[in-house]
Amino acid sequence: MIPVEEARDRILSRIRALPKEKVGLDEALGRYLAEDIVSDRDIPLWNNSAMDGYAVRSEDTRVQSSKFKVIYDLPAGAIPKGPVGSGEAVRIMTGAPIPPGADAVVMREDTLEAKNKVTILKVIKKGDNIRKKGEDIKKGDVILQRGEHIGPAQIGVLASLQRFSIFCFQRPVVAIISTGDELSEIDEPILPGKIASSNSYTLISLVKAAGGTPLYLGIAKDTKKDLMEIFSAAKRSDLILSSGGVSVGDYDIVKEVMKSESNRMEFWQVEMKPGKPLAFGEIHGIPALGLPGNPVSSMVSFYEFARPAILKMQGAKNLLLPTVTARLKTPLQKKPDRCHYVRGILKREASELAVSPTGAQGSGILSSMSQANCLIVLPKGKTVVKKGETVECKITHASWG
Ligand code: AMP
Ligand code: MG
Questions:
Q1: pTM of the predicted protein model
Q2: Which CATH architecture has domain 48-131?
Q3: CB 198 within 8 A of CB 293
Q4: Ligand showing the shortest atom-to-Cα distance for residue 195
Q5: Which residue lies with its CA nearest to atom 15 of ligand 1?
Q6: How far apart are alpha carbons 381 and 245 in whole angstroms?
Q7: Nearest ligand, CA of residue 293?
Q8: Which atom from ligand 1 is nearest to the alpha carbon of 197?
Q9: Could you report the per-residue pLDDT of 154-177, keeping only the tens digit for each?
């Protein structure tokens, strides 16, 4: 048995970022940048009005209730028809360029409007209500960095620079194999002694959520022949995930396959609960994680080991689940030998976060994972965590009230 951090470090030391590829902006959401984005322009491109109102020379408003001649209208998208002289105003709309001569905009609400005339009720300062050229982004700024995750705001910034294509890291193809004689596909009738292979679908979804492309290869029987055959279909992948067959049972032969022919098993068993029987190695030269079969163990091991690997392949900077600290609402006890991951429900309580365990923590109780929005991490060595102590929570599902 090795500690969780050591297991993760050893896995990640075998993982490299994939090559980059050109991606259209409309396909870039959720990917990771493979280039620094340097702005080729100022944003805004020119000084423009932040308000609907009147563009004037600010010095002309030194006297309250000063009167101006309105020389023309300037809607957004139009260009100024001429300079603004002393005692003159241009009726300007939000986003329209500031006409030459003007150095401030008076909000419409601070004026009395008449035909071709306006009375400005307020004294204003130079620069008021003007959005300055380059105040958002300056030409030459590195506005997004290599390795950055592309969310809606990053897409917006790229669109404002008219970057319709960018370089992103390739998405890894992740082969998924479920193992076990007891497993049925979800569209097959459940015969006596069989169960539906839920792991196939949780793993497909976990891979997608982590930005990978799942390659589902189906269910392998608990025979060396069947496993070898199905693993050979994984040759096109960047990472292999199997579930089941890594415990100490008579039919747990994933480890055996990992040790045979030119494959390699690098380690087996991690100091964690659930998730102890994780196996890591190489199959056909491809990094392979033998995840435990129990549905919760499989998910927890995915979050701790497979997800960071999938993210590293995409060039991501942050590989771990986001964590928060929260006050524990129910005391917990454990043995000191391993790190425990307890399914928890995080809630905001007054000004802080509180977390409650979901109840029964058996590693087969998948429904509790669907109620949970985090994993409470109780470190190795710790035995008692009292009610009211703060605990570290890894966020698995970003939804809480
Ligand atoms: P194993 O590690 O292969 O002994 O699997 C442990 C337990 O996990 C099995 O008894 C099944 O109940 C469950 N299990 C294994 N694979 C799957 C799967 N693909 N979907 C749902 N449950 C599974
Ligand atoms: Mg099995």
A1: 0.94
A2: Beta Complex (2.170)
A3: no
A4: 1
A5: 293
A6: 28
A7: 1
A8: 20
A9: 999 999 999 999 999 999 999 999
